[in-house]
DNA sequence: AAGCTTTGACCTATA
DNA sequence: TTATAGGTCAAAGCT
């Protein structure tokens, strides 16, 4: 198992599809300083429930364990920009170069330390990046954002309302701008989608100041528009799952929704049945 | 009827 | 100061 790649671990752990990637990045942040923080650029980094993971467990275990939650939250610390690789010590990769995906982080510099921005980017896109990897850090210092290749899955269980779309010059793909539909939530995300519908990049700005809506697990609804939205999101995630298989070497998914949600529970002692996993498995089967 | 997406216009930051 | 790019607004139509 020690020779198993990170991708294999992920693939075997059944965490590749459906909704999960965004949560730990743009997920719920229990506290926010300031009042309202209308501008994400001035938003403080979310006080992630970081507890340094213990050493010496496999990442596959991590994926199946509630530890993943806090660990995944500590994958990237918007506060410190640190990536606690030590959580993979033992049977896991020793350093990030062992991963088939790139993680780019930067310590928040003075001017951007308060910015809360995350970028989930397609590895393929990174491979096309003309900037040599060894210079990426320098570039990242200028770009006040955290870049991590996670997956193209854009369904995170939160309610997003699209408020704009723009063709930006620096990318050939159009960007869609989304706001969280939760009242008073300033969380936003920018999704860059390729012509074939694949999400090539997701940028998160601001964190959620609320837990994830329930409908992701139980579209129980009452026919409300939120459930309709849930259907849309689920449908979109299914599409992503299909495209995911077409280029599996360029996409890695974290089961982050679960993580993030459990994090909320652990953080707030919320008791909630975890019936979302069957849903995940079901979607995964669709992609098989 | 509420809430969503679409899309052109507008605003703002930056070089 | 101006041009450009990126982000947001808001009306219209759709679900």
Describe the fold and architecture.
Helices cover 30% and strands 13% of the residues. It has helices at 6-12, 23-26, 59-64, 67-73, 123-128, 133-142, 225-246, 256-268, 276-287, and strands at 103-104, 117-121, 146-148, 160-167, 174-180, 188-193, 199-205. It has a seven-stranded mixed sheet. The protein binds a DNA duplex (15 and 15 nucleotides) through β4 and α7.
Structural descriptors:
DNA-binding transcription factor activity, 7-stranded mixed beta sheet, 288 residues, alpha+beta, DNA-binding, globular, 7 strands, metal-binding
Brief overview:
With 288 residues, the protein is of the alpha+beta class. It has nine helices and seven strands.
Cα end-to-end separation: 23 Å
Low-confidence stretches: 1-115, 123-154, 215-288
Please state how the strands of the largest beta sheet are arranged side by side: 1-3-2-7-6-5-4
Structural class: alpha+beta
Describe the main β-sheet briefly.
7 strands, mixed
- Let me know the average pLDDT: 47
How much of the sequence lies in strands comes to 5-15%
The H/E string reads HHHHEEHHEEEEEHHH
Number of helical runs? Answer: 9
Instruction: Report Rg.
Output: 18 Å
| Counted beta strands | 7
Estimated helix fraction: 25-40%
What shape does the CA trace take?
globular
């Amino acid at each position: 198992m020690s020779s198993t790649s990170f991708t294999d671990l992920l693939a075997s752990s059944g965490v590749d599809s459906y909704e999960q990637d965004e949560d730990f990045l743009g997920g719920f942040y229990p506290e926010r300083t300031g009042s309202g923080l209308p501008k994400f650029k001035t938003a403080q980094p979310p006080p992630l429930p970081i507890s340094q993971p213990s050493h010496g467990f496999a990442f596959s275990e991590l994926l199946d364990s509630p530890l993943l939650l806090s660990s995944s939250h500590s994958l990237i610390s918007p506060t410190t920009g640190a990536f606690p690789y030590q959580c993979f010590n033992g049977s896991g990769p020793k350093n990030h170069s062992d991963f088939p995906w790139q993680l780019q982080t930067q310590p928040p510099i003075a001017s951007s330390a308060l910015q809360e921005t995350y970028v989930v980017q397609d590895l393929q896109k990174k491979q096309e990046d003309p900037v040599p990897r060894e210079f990426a850090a320098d570039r990242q210092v200028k770009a006040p954002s955290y870049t991590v290749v996670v997956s193209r899955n854009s369904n995170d269980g939160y309610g997003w309302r699209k408020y704009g779309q723009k063709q930006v010059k620096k990318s050939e793909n159009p960007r869609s701008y989304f706001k969280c539909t939760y009242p008073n939530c300033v969380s936003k995300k920018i999704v860059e989608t390729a012509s074939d519908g694949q999400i090539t990049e997701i940028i998160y700005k601001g964190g959620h100041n609320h837990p994830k809506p329930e409908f992701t697990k139980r579209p129980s609804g009452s026919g409300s528009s939120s459930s309709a939205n849930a259907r849309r999101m689920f449908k979109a995630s299914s599409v992503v799952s299909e495209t995911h298989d077409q280029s599996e070497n360029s996409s890695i998914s974290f089961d982050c929704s679960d993580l993030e949600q459990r994090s909320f529970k652990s953080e707030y002692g919320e008791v909630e049945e975890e019936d979302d996993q069957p849903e995940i498995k079901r979607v995964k089967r669709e992609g098989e």
